[in-house]
Amino acid sequence: METVSFGGKTVRYTYDTNGNRESITYDGG
Fold this sequence. Notes:
Blueprint: E1 2-6, E2 9-15, E3 21-27
Antiparallel strand pairs: 1-2, 2-3
């Protein structure tokens, strides 16, 4: 999982077994 923060938002990326971006979850405003 990769977590990136910007503009007060936290974005979590999850990757499949091939390392491709599978889903994105936004936390916060």
